[in-house]
């Protein structure tokens, strides 16, 4: 018997359902365990809604109609599952019966409305469900028209039991019982007064329960309830188990998906929405229903929030949304992904839901033609990439009266510049501007008409378009463009599911939990007598890059990474864990790839390495030894680059080396460790490191080894997005005039130049040749400026163009003169070609690295606070300035670098084992390898080739050990001895494959 506190908890929930939600109270005696039904409730519903069809069935089955129909229904549910049967009904000897009536999209069909209200919800406490052990019971079961849909185990801490006891109770139950078999009920809830967890599939000890909580203080849990009869979890039965909500979930949210596991086995899952997904979608839909088209919404949902699912459900509901007069609010829902390759997960999630054929189309080929056709045909949901829109701008100007919902996946600043302006032009459905009477209009008139095409209200938000922008990491521009302005002038997201909550609820892992940073210490020496001068900032950057990319540094860092992977990572996630190496350049990615593969082979590690980078890299940019060779991703991996992500799933590939690829949007749950050799900051830091946060049943932690960034550099961007991200204040639109005035001070252009350009640009009869001619005076004046002034002018004009593209969408006014200046600047800045300073790359040939050490500097968790992440608006114009880079002697540059990056080096830190390093290079030289073939050459032939090569290789020793290099050069006898020893060792090693070590 239940203890009194648990009994009271059950009773309170039952009373709430009956009094507030009109549930019918039933008892276990009304339930048939074998049929897994409450037959009387089922027949009450059918007789009330489909009496004529029931008479027809009775005439065909006779007196056994109930038994035969129940047998037919039970078999159909076993075969197809409750969800499909409820959505499509059941057929029996030519008769069709609906087992539930979902809410109609509009109120025009009165009969359907009546049937919707006829649905019967009932509740049974202490339901004896078992067909094997009659006394076994479940605390509470909810029914729709006699069919069970929800079960719940309820626990009270006052009885010494909590949510964990409820979860364990489900895990101990027999999942072969009809009520607990997969597909029968939609969800099984574990509930106590503070927390709610749920599962859709009972599978013994392997049952996975997920939190179903509202969140509290941006983290897990629920807000505390106050009052005599309140529970923290009352939202479950007061909101989620309401009749309308459960029917909405059944109709629009539940989804059956099939997934292929790593072993190729197919598993079927029923997706029940998480609380924040239900909350976000329903709030957005209700706000849209009330306010109609023409609004903007920012949804800040962390990685791990199930964003693709939320977007797909939102699109479904928006596509059928009607206003108070029963008219469709939107003609089409357009889903934009920020990636050039259409987001397969998003596409499959939307397409995976049940739709009428032809209501969804994914635009991937013949973009202009197919997009135009889809919108013209009123296709309900259109999935495209951002790059599709420019193809159809002119077409949509001729599409009056249409209204659109634009759902943006991963909204970032790319949505807030000129592309977004083009997007608005594409979709605005004002009547197109006609130019027959153009000669009666001046330039300002035409500009006003153009502005009205893309800006129709005070906030320049088209009244026929609503934007729904989803992102985990909103930038300041994104918040100002799509966020909700607060009374204090700040901007916040419309809906939030924070990174903190996602981590605490276990949907993603904390990638800052195990974070180790390293610092490179090194010492440089000048190897030439002269002391040339270089611009200090550029030279210092080149020298630091030279050190980090040197063969010795790459080798040492690779040794450290591989040792860490072998001893600390490879056995994680059931021995299947993978790692990613994030590099700073394509050339470095190749350098690492070659060194990783070499060391993996030498140490006979049982795994392989992949590399990912774009385009083609010239061999001489990697190492001189590769001059004339081209490197490509497909060439290095041995298969087309489009297969890299899929191939990396294979068990034999354990490490992926990347350069600006797979740092965003890459989802690989087996990725456990990241080795960072690239400067990261801002959103890029969060997105890159978040590649590690995906869950896996056997994954409990992650690791990061960072060779470039310190802990504070990483903490700062993560803090911005840990809880809620807020823009502190709006951008001052008058900054545009500040930019304009600063540019005028250069005397590069005047008003007559701008007006001449504008006459042609805003005329339908304007000529492109005249446009470029009108830019020529400014180009010539700019050409007479000093080089520093040229760069400064171009920087400021480029910034003005970017800021206008953004601010023109949010400022509460428009200025036709400023619009003219914007268009003029946008074209002029493209014609200003500043001669780039030649990078003095030869500086790296005038120094050597005498000492090098990698040292661990911090280890452990990077802690974040619960403070809101606060972003500042776009910077003031004065933030742009030229940095003076003085010419400085090389010796002084080296001295300053050594002072900053030097330390107390030991003999082991001397870029050591110098002759071994030299011998290693010689044994890998392709010419020597070929010359050592005894079938082709004699030993004397090899000696000749060796003498040609060894001098160049000895020069490389400068980078390794300046003292040894000097001794070889200055002491002829010692130099001769070293060369003879190298000759003999290298030849023997190449011929006999023996591993001889020079001591």
Strand content: 15-25%
Radius of gyration over C-alpha positions, nearest whole angstrom: 35 Å
Q: In terms of per-residue confidence, which ranges show pLDDT below 50 for 5 or more consecutive residues?
A: 412-416, 423-460, 994-999
Shape: globular
Strand order of the largest sheet: 1-4-5-6-7-8-9
Q: Count of helical segments?
A: 37
What does this protein structure show overall?
Helix 4 crosses helix 5 (82-88), helix 27 (735-744) runs antiparallel to helix 30 and helix 28 (751-761) packs antiparallel against helix 29 (768-783). The N and C termini lie far apart (82 Å). The strands form 9 sheets. This protein has a 7-stranded mixed sheet, with helices on both faces. It is globular. Strand 28, helix 25 (682-689) and strand 29 (703-706) form a beta-alpha-beta unit. It is of the alpha/beta class and 999 residues long. Residues 412-416, 423-460 and 994-999 have low confidence and may be disordered.
Short précis:
The chain has 999 residues and is of the alpha/beta class. It contains 37 helices and 33 strands.
Structural topology:
Blueprint: H1 4-21, E1 24-26, H2 39-49, H3 51-61, H4 65-80, H5 82-88, E2 90-92, E3 95-97, H6 110-117, E4 121-128, E5 137-144, E6 147-154, H7 163-171, E7 187-191, E8 196-199, E9 210-211, H8 235-240, H9 243-253, E10 255-260, E11 266-271, H10 275-291, E12 296-301, H11 307-319, E13 332-337, H12 344-352, E14 360-362, H13 367-376, E15 381-385, H14 393-396, E16 404-409, H15 418-427, H16 443-454, E17 465-471, H17 476-482, E18 484-485, E19 491-492, E20 495-497, H18 499-504, E21 515-526, E22 533-535, H19 536-549, H20 551-569, H21 572-575, E23 578-583, H22 586-602, E24 608-612, E25 616-618, E26 630-632, H23 633-637, H24 644-648, E27 653-658, E28 671-677, H25 682-689, E29 703-706, H26 711-720, E30 725-727, H27 735-744, H28 751-761, H29 768-783, H30 787-807, H31 816-828, E31 847-860, E32 869-871, E33 887-889, H32 890-901, H33 914-923, H34 926-931, H35 939-956, H36 962-970, H37 972-992
Parallel strand pairs: 1-4, 6-7, 12-17, 12-20, 13-15, 13-16, 14-15, 16-17, 21-29, 23-27, 23-28, 24-27, 28-29, 30-32
Antiparallel strand pairs: 2-3, 4-5, 5-6, 7-8, 8-9, 10-11, 18-19, 21-31, 22-33, 25-26
Helix pairs in contact: 4-5, 10-11, 11-12, 19-32, 20-22, 25-26, 27-30, 28-29, 28-31, 30-31, 33-37, 36-37
